[in-house]
C-alpha cells in the first residue's frame, strides 16, 4: 500500500474521522474542539498539497478513457455494494484536482476563522463536527467516479449545511434552511433518476462514469436523461431561474457557511455538468447547450441588475455569485476547450474571490452588527482602513480586473462564446457574448457603487464614537492565502490552465 | 525591465512606504527615474535605426490557443517610453510638493507607481491580451486616483463615472480583440498584422474588428460620445490629471490604434469612422473649453480636443503626424496641468473667477503657463505648432477637406480659449482670497523643465530636420508629406493670432458675466455640455440603477420566488387533504409535496421530527418506479 493509494481516501475521510473525534470530546472543551477542527482540515490540506506535487498534468485524464483505469491518478477502485455493482471508485484528473484543492483550502481557512468567530448560539462541538462532515461530502464529490458514490457524497453535503444554516443562521434561518434543503433535494432526485436510468440502460449495468462514457446511448434517451441531470445540477449551480434558494441561504447562513456555500457547494453543480452530463451524454449536450447558454447569460444580466437593488451587503454578494456562475455556465455551454477551461478557472476564481467576500461581509457584520449598506453608511476606509482596503481589493478582483483572479475566467468564457463549438449557432452565441459583455459593465457598476456607499465618504455620526477594531490576527491568517491566491491566479493563470488543459482537451474530443 | 521596476516599486511602497524617506515618494521617484534612464537608452538606440526587439514566452495555453507574455519594442514604443517616464518622473517630483499636506501621501505614490508600470506594460505588450491587462490596469489606477479625495461624494462619483464610461468602451474593445484573434489565429499583435497584410482575413471581418477595437479608443481616449468622463476626472489631484488624464493614459487609445494600424489601414470604412469621430471630438470639445470657469476643466476639454486631432490624423492615415502630436502634446499639456496645479496650490480654488492678476505673485508659473498655452495654440516655433501644422498639412494635401477645415477652425478656438484662460488667471486684478505665493522649487522645477521641452520638442520632428522623430514612428509606404508648406502654416498661425486677439478683446477687462453668455441658447447648450450628461444619467444610468434594478429584484422576490413558494403552498393544500395522497403520489409532485411540507409552521421541528425520513422513503420509492419507466423509453 503506497501513499498514492491512500492519498485521496485520506484527504476525503480525515475530516469525517475528525468529526467522530470531536464528537467524543467533552462538550466544555471549546478550544480543544476548535483546534481539532483545524487539525482535521489541516491534515487533508497537507495531503492535498502532496497530491498536487505528485500530480502529472500531462496524463490523459478521465475523459474518453473508458475501461482504462490508469487514466486517473491516485485512483482506487474497490467493490462496494456488489448487488448493484456500485464501487468505491475515486481518482483525480485535471478537472477535479483544482476543485479538490479549493475545497481543502477553504475548509481549512474556515476552521481557522472559527477559532475566533463562532456564530450564535455557540455550541462549538456540533458546529465543528458538522463543518468536518460537510468537508468530507464536498471533497468526495469531486473525486468520486462511481455514480452511487457521487450521489452519496452529494447528498452528504446537504444535511450538515442544512443544520449550519438552520441552527447558526440569521433571523430567517428556518425558512432559508428548509428552502435550501428541499429545493436541492428536489433537484437531486431527478439527478438520481438520471443515474439510475443510465445504469439500467447500459450493458453491462454499471455506475462507473468512465465505462458509461463508452455506453453509446441513443439520442432520445440522452435527451431525457440530460433533462434529469440538468435539474439536479442547475439547481445546485444555481442557474437562473432556479437560483432563488441561494440569496436566502447565503444571507441567513453563518459566515463560514456562506464561504463554503459560495466557495465550494455551487461548484458541485458546474462540476457535475463537466464530469457527468457532457462526456456521457454528448449528443444531448449539443442540443441542450444553447438553452444553457441563454439561461447563463440571463443569469449574468439579471443578477447584476438585482445586485443594484440590494440593500444587504451579503445578499448583494450572493446575487453576484449567480452572475459569476453564469459566466462559468456560459463557458461550459460553448462546448469548447477554451470555454470549459475558462469555466473551471472561473469556478476556482469565484471560490477564492467570493469566499473572501463572504469572509469580509461576516467580519463587517461582527463589527457593525449590521449588513445593511445604508446603516454602515460609508467611511469604512477611515474607520477600519485595513478591512476596507481588503474589501476594495476583493471587490475589484470580483468585477474582473486583469491581473487578479476574476478576469481570465470571464474574458475567456466570452471569447469561447464568440467562437463556440461546431454545430452551435454562431449568431446566438455571439449575441450571448454581447449581453455577457454588458453584464461586465453592470458588474463593475454595482461593485463600485457598493464600495462608494460602504468604504468611501466620511464616517457617519453613529459610528464615530464607537470603537471598531480593524483586522485581527486570526482574520489575517485565514485570509492571507485567499488574497495571495487572487493575485497569483491572476498573474499566472497557467496555475489552473496548466492542470486542466489536457483533461479538457480529452473531454472536448468526446463532444 | 522598464515596466517591471515601477510595478515592483508599487509593491515596495505598499508594504514599506511609510518607513522610507519622503514616506514612500523616494522609492517611486527612484524607480521611475531608473525606468526613465533605460527608456532614454532605448530611445537613442532607435534613433540610430535599431532593430525591433520582440521576445516572449508562453503565458498560458488553452487548447490550441496560446497567449504569450512578451515584449515588442519598436520606435513607437521607445517614443512612448520616453513620454511616459519623463512626464511620470516630473509628476512624481512635483507631487512631493503638491501632495505634502494631503491625506494618504504614501498610497498616492504607490498608485502613481502602479499606474506607470501598467502604462508601460500596455506600451511594451506584444500580445493583445497582455495589452488588455495593461489597458484595464491603467483604468483602475485612474479610478483610484480620481477618487483620491474620496471623502467628498462628488469625487468618488467622478471616479465611478470614469471607470464605467471607459469600460463601456472596453467591452467592444475586448470583442475586437476576439474578432482579430480568432480571425488571425493568434493574439500576437505582429501576427495579427501579418495575417491582415497577407489577405488571410475577409474585409468585412477586418472592418468589424477595427471598429470594435476603436470602441476602446473612444472610451480610453475620451472621444465623442464617451468623452464625458474626462472633465469629471479632474476631481483627482492635479498632478494626476497631468500624468494620467493629459499626457499618458488618455493617449493609450491613440497608441493602440497606431499599434494595430495595419488592421485599420486595411479598412477604408473603419478609417473613415475614425476620422469622423476625431473631427467631431476636436470641435465640440474646443467649443466646450470656451465656457468653463474651472481652469482644470478648460484644460480637460482642451485635452479631449487635442486627442481628437490625433485620432482624426490617424483616420486620414497621417500616422506619423498623429504620434508627433501625441509626443509634443504630452509635454505642453502636462506643463499646463502642473502649472494649473501650482496656481490651485496657491489660491486654493479651481475657479478662474477667483483668480486674476497672478502674474506678479507667481512669476515662474506664469511664464511657464504662457509657454504651454502658446505651444497649445500653435505659435511657432513652439512644439505644438510643428505637430499640429503637420496634421493640418497632411489633411489638406491628402484631400480631406472637411478634416482640414475642422482642424483649422479648432486651431482658432484653441487659441481663443487659452487666451481667455491666461487673461482670467494671470492678468487683471486678483479676485480671490488671501495672498498667493509662488510654489516651492520642487514644484516649479518640473514646470521649467517641461516648459523647455514644450519649446524645443517640436524641432525634433520639424520638417527641416533629417531623421529625427520620423525615423521612430514612420511606417513603410506612408504617404507622408515632408516639405513644409509656408502658406498653410501661415494660415493656421494667422488663425491662431485671430483667436488670441479675439480672446484679448473679450477678456481684457474682467466682467463677472462672461461675454460669451450673449450667445444665448448656444451658450446654454455649451454650458449644459450638449445635454449629453443629462441624457446618459437620466436616460440610462438612473433608470437602470433604480427602477429597472428594483423591478428585477421585484420579479425575483415576487415572481420567481413566488412560483417556488406558491407551488409549495398549493401542494401543501393538496397534500394536507389526506395523508394518503402523500403516499400515493409517485411522480414529480412528490417533491412538491415535500417542499410544501416545508412551508408549514414550525418547519424545523417538522423536519427534525422524522418526517423527512418519511418523505425520503416516498421520494426514493418514486425514484425507483420512475427509473423503471425511464429505462423503457
Describe the structure.
- The complex is a heterodimer of chains A (511) and B (633).
- Chain A is mostly helical.
- Chain A has one domain (3-510).
- Chain A has 21 helices and two strands.
- A two-stranded antiparallel ribbon of chain A has the order 1-2.
- In chain A, strand 1 (73-81) and strand 2 form a beta hairpin.
- In chain A, helix 9 (245-252) runs antiparallel to helix 10 (255-280).
- The radius of gyration of chain A is 22 Å and the shape is globular.
- Chain A starts with a helix and ends with a helix.
- Chain B has a domain at 538-631.
- Chain B has 26 helices and two strands.
- A two-stranded antiparallel sheet of chain B has the order 1-2.
- The termini of chain B are far apart.
- Mean pLDDT of chain B is 81; it is low at 580-590 and 596-610.
- The chains are: A mainly alpha (511), B mainly alpha (633).
Task: Break the fold down into its secondary structure elements and pairings.
The complex is a heterodimer of chains A (511) and B (633).
Chain A: H1 3-24, H2 30-54, E1 73-81, E2 86-92, H3 96-116, H4 124-143, H5 147-168, H6 173-201, H7 209-213, H8 219-236, H9 245-252, H10 255-280, H11 282-308, H12 313-333, H13 337-368, H14 373-376, H15 380-383, H16 385-398, H17 406-418, H18 426-454, H19 461-464, H20 473-491, H21 494-510
Antiparallel strand pairs in A: 1-2
Helix pairs in contact in A: 1-2, 1-4, 2-3, 2-4, 3-4, 3-10, 3-13, 3-20, 4-5, 4-10, 5-6, 5-10, 6-8, 6-9, 8-10, 8-11, 9-10, 9-12, 10-12, 10-13, 11-12, 11-18, 12-13, 12-17, 12-18, 13-16, 13-17, 13-20, 13-21, 16-18, 17-18
Chain B: H1 4-16, H2 25-47, E1 53-62, E2 65-73, H3 75-98, H4 105-124, H5 128-146, H6 153-184, H7 189-197, H8 203-220, H9 229-232, H10 238-247, H11 252-259, H12 261-265, H13 268-289, H14 295-315, H15 319-347, H16 363-377, H17 383-397, H18 401-426, H19 441-456, H20 469-473, H21 486-507, H22 521-527, H23 532-577, H24 579-584, H25 589-598, H26 603-631
Antiparallel strand pairs in B: 1-2
Amino acid at each position: 500500500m503506497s501513499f498514492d493509494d491512500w492519498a485521496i481516501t485520506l484527504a476525503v475521510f480525515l475530516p469525517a474521522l475528525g468529526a467522530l473525534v470531536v464528537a467524543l470530546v467533552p462538550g466544555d472543551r471549546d478550544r480543544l474542539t476548535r483546534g481539532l477542527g483545524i487539525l482535521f482540515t489541516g491534515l487533508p490540506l497537507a495531503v492535498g498539497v502532496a497530491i498536487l506535487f505528485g500530480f502529472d498534468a500531462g496524463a490523459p485524464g478521465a475523459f474518453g478513457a473508458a475501461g482504462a483505469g490508469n487514466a486517473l491518478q491516485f485512483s482506487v477502485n474497490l467493490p462496494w455494494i456488489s448487488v448493484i455493482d456500485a464501487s468505491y471508485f475515486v481518482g483525480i484528473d485535471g478537472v477535479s484536482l483544482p476543485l479538490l484543492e479549493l475545497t481543502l483550502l477553504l475548509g481549512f481557512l474556515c476552521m481557522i476563522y472559527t477559532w475566533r468567530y463562532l456564530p450564535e448560539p455557540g455550541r462549538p462541538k456540533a458546529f465543528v463536527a458538522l463543518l468536518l462532515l460537510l468537508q468530507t461530502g464536498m471533497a468526495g464529490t469531486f473525486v468520486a467516479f462511481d455514480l452511487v458514490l457521487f450521489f452519496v457524497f452529494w447528498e452528504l453535503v446537504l444535511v450538515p449545511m442544512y443544520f449550519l444554516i438552520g441552527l447558526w443562521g440569521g433571523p430567517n434561518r428556518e425558512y432559508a434552511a428548509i428552502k435550501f434543503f428541499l429545493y436541492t433535494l428536489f433537484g437531486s432526485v431527478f439527478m438520481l433518476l438520471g443515474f439510475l436510468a443510465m445504469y439500467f440502460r447500459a450493458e453491462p449495468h454499471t455506475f462507473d462514469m468512465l465505462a458509461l462514457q463508452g455506453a453509446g446511448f441513443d439520442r432520445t434517451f440522452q435527451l431525457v436523461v440530460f433533462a434529469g441531470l440538468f435539474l439536479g445540477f442547475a439547481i445546485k449551480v444555481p442557474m437562473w431561474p432556479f437560483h432563488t434558494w441561494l440569496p436566502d441561504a447565503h444571507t441567513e447562513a453563518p459566515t463560514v457557511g456562506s464561504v463554503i456555500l459560495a466557495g465550494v457547494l455551487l461548484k458541485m453543480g458546474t462540476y457535475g455538468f463537466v464530469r457527468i452530463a457532457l462526456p456521457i451524454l454528448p449528443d444531448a449536450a449539443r442540443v441542450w447547450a444553447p438553452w444553457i447558454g441563454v439561461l447563463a447569460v440571463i443569469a449574468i444580466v439579471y443578477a447584476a441588475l438585482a445586485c443594484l437593488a440590494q440593500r444587504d451587503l451579503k445578499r448583494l454578494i450572493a446575487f453576484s455569485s449567480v452572475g459569476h456562475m453564469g459566466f462559468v455556465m456560459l463557458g461550459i455551454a460553448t462546448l469548447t476547450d477554451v470555454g470549459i477551461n475558462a469555466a473551471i478557472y472561473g469556478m476556482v476564481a469565484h471560490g477564492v474571490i467570493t469566499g473572501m467576500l463572504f469572509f469580509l461581509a461576516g467580519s463587517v457584520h461582527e463589527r457593525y452588527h449590521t449588513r445593511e449598506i445604508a446603516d454602515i453608511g460609508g467611511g469604512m476606509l477611515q474607520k477600519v482602513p485595513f478591512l476596507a482596503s481588503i474589501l476594495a481589493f476583493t471587490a475589484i478582483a470580483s468585477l474582473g480586473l486583469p491581473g487578479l483572479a476574476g478576469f481570465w475566467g470571464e474574458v475567456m468564457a466570452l471569447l469561447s462564446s464568440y467562437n463556440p463549438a461546431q454545430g452551435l449557432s454562431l449568431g446566438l452565441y455571439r449575441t450571448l457574448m454581447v449581453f455577457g459583455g454588458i453584464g461586465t459593465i453592470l458588474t463593475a457598476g454595482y461593485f463600485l457603487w457598493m464600495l462608494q456607499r460602504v468604504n468611501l465618504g466620511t464616517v457617519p455620526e453613529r459610528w464615530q464614537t464607537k470603537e471598531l477594531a480593524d483586522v485581527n490576527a486570526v482574520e489575517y491568517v485565514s485570509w492571507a492565502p485567499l488574497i495571495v491566491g487572487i493575485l497569483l491566479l491572476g498573474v499566472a493563470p497557467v496555475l489552473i490552465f496548466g492542470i486542466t488543459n489536457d483533461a479538457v482537451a480529452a473531454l472536448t474530443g468526446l463532444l | 525591465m522598464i515596466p517591471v521596476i515601477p510595478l515592483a516599486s508599487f509593491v515596495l511602497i505598499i508594504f514599506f512606504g511609510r518607513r522610507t524617506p519622503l514616506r514612500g515618494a523616494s522609492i517611486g521617484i527612484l524607480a521611475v527615474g531608473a525606468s526613465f534612464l533605460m527608456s532614454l537608452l532605448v530611445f537613442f538606440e532607435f534613433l540610430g535605426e535599431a532593430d525591433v526587439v520582440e521576445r516572449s514566452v508562453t503565458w498560458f495555453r488553452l487548447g490550441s490557443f496560446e497567449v504569450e507574455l512578451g515584449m515588442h519594442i519598436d520606435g513607437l514604443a521607445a517614443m512612448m517610453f520616453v513620454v511616459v517616464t519623463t512626464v511620470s518622473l516630473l509628476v512624481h517630483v512635483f507631487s512631493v510638493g503638491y501632495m505634502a499636506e494631503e491625506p494618504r501621501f504614501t498610497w498616492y505614490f504607490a498608485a502613481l507607481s502602479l499606474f506607470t508600470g501598467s502604462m508601460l506594460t500596455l506600451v511594451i505588450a506584444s500580445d493583445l491580451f497582455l495589452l488588455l491587462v495593461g489597458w484595464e490596469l491603467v483604468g483602475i489606477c485612474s479610478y483610484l486616483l480620481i477618487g483620491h479625495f474620496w471623502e467628498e461624494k462628488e469625487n468618488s462619483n467622478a471616479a465611478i463615472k470614469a471607470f464605467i464610461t471607459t469600460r463601456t468602451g472596453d467591452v467592444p474593445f475586448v470583442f475586437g480583440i476576439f474578432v482579430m484573434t480568432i480571425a488571425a489565429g493568434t493574439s500576437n499583435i505582429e501576427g495579427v498584422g501579418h495575417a491582415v497584410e497577407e489577405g488571410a482575413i475577409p474585409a468585412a471581418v477586418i472592418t468589424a474588428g477595427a471598429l470594435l477595437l476603436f470602441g476602446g479608443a473612444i472610451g480610453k481616449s475620451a472621444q465623442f460620445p464617451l468623452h464625458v468622463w474626462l472633465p469629471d476626472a479632474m476631481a483627482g489631484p492635479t498632478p494626476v490629471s497631468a500624468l494620467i488624464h493629459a499626457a499618458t493614459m488618455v493617449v493609450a487609445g491613440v497608441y493602440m490604434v497606431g499599434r494595430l494600424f495595419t488592421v485599420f489601414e486595411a479598412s477604408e470604412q473603419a478609417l473613415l469612422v475614425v476620422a469622423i469621430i476625431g473631427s467631431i471630438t476636436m470641435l465640440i470639445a474646443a467649443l466646450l473649453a470656451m465656457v468653463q470657469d474651472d481652469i482644470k476643466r478648460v484644460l480637460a476639454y482642451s485635452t479631449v480636443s487635442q486627442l481628437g486631432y490625433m485620432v482624426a490624423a490617424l483616420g486620414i492615415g497621417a500616422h506619423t503626424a498623429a504620434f508627433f502630436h501625441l509626443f509634443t502634446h504630452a509635454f505642453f499639456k502636462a506643463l499646463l496641468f502642473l502649472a494649473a496645479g501650482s496656481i490651485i496650490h496657491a489660491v486654493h480654488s479651481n475657479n478662474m473667477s477667483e483668480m486674476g492678476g497672478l502674474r506678479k505673485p507667481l512669476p515662474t508659473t506664469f511664464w511657464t503657463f504662457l509657454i504651454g498655452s502658446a505651444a497649445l495654440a500653435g505659435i511657432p516655433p513652439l512644439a505644438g505648432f510643428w505637430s499640429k501644422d503637420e496634421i493640418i498639412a497632411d489633411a489638406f494635401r491628402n484631400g480631406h477637406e472637411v478634416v482640414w477645415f475642422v482642424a483649422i477652425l479648432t486651431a482658432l478656438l484653441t487659441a481663443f480659449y487659452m487666451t481667455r484662460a491666461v487673461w482670467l488667471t494671470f492678468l487683471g486684478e486678483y479676485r480671490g482670497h488671501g495672498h498667493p505665493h509662488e510654489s516651492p522649487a520642487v514644484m516649479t522645477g518640473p514646470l521649467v523643465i517641461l516648459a523647455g521641452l514644450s519649446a524645443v520638442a517640436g524641432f525634433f520632428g520639424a520638417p527641416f530636420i533629417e531623421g529625427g522623430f520620423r525615423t521612430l514612428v514612420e511606417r513603410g509606404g506612408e504617404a507622408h508629406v515632408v516639405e513644409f508648406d509656408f502658406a498653410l502654416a501661415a494660415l493656421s498661425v494667422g488663425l491662431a493670432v485671430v483667436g488670441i486677439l479675439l480672446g484679448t478683446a473679450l477678456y481684457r477687462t474682467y466682467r463677472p458675466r462672461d461675454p460669451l453668455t450673449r450667445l444665448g441658447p448656444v451658450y446654454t447648450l455649451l454650458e449644459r455640455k450638449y445635454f449629453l450628461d443629462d441624457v446618459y444619467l437620466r436616460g440610462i444610468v438612473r433608470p437602470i440603477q433604480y427602477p429597472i434594478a428594483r423591478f428585477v429584484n421585484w420579479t425575483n422576490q415576487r415572481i420567481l420566488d413566488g412560483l417556488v413558494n406558491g407551488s409549495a403552498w398549493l401542494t401543501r393544500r393538496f397534500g394536507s387533504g389526506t395523508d394518503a395522497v402523500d403516499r400515493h403520489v409517485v411522480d414529480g409532485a412528490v417533491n412538491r409535496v415535500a417542499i410544501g411540507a416545508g412551508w408549514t409552521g414550525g418547519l424545523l421541528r417538522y423536519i427534525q421530527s422524522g418526517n423527512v425520513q418519511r418523505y425520503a422513503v416516498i421520494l426514493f420509492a418514486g425514484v425507483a418506479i420512475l427509473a423503471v419507466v425511464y429505462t423503457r423509453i
